[in-house]
Amino acid sequence: MSSLNDYIKFALDIEDQNIIFSDYSNENISGKIYKIYLAELIRSACPFCRSTNLKHNGHYVSNVRFITADASKPVTIRLRKQRVLCNDCLKRS
Asked: Could you tell me the residue ranges of all domains in the chain?
């Protein structure tokens, strides 16, 4: 793991090993400056049957608002989630 990934996880107090942070930036959205963290959720097993026989089918992006103690500096995590199809139970997640 990279030191940037470890630092962001420590700063945001995130312990999930499946989330990998790659970059961060500041963006002006509607006159407010947001801290945007770019991350990817990597699925290694099916959440329903725990099978590792997965077929990867792209990504979709979800913007997660992160609650901070300082409301003047809002934080958003732009999370790219893997779309997968389990070949054993045929469920999508």
From this structure: 3-86
Give me the residues paired with residue 42 across strands: none
Pairwise CA distance, residues 62 & 93, whole Å: 14
CA quadruple 14, 1, 4, 44: dihedral sign: negative
CA–CA distance, 67 with 63 (Å, rounded to integer): 13
Chain centroid to Cα 14, Å, comes to 10
Distant-in-sequence, close-in-space partners of 64: CB < 8 Å, separation ≥ 6: 76, 77, 78, 79
Distances (CA, A) of 49 to 55, 85, 89, 92: 14, 12, 7, 11
Pick left, alpha or beta for residue 39 (phi over 0 → left; psi -120 to 50 → alpha; otherwise beta). beta
Rounded mean pLDDT for each run of 10 residues along the chain, 93 residues in total: 82 89 91 92 88 88 87 89 90 86
- pLDDT of res. 67: 84
Give the H/E segment covering residue 10: helix 3-12
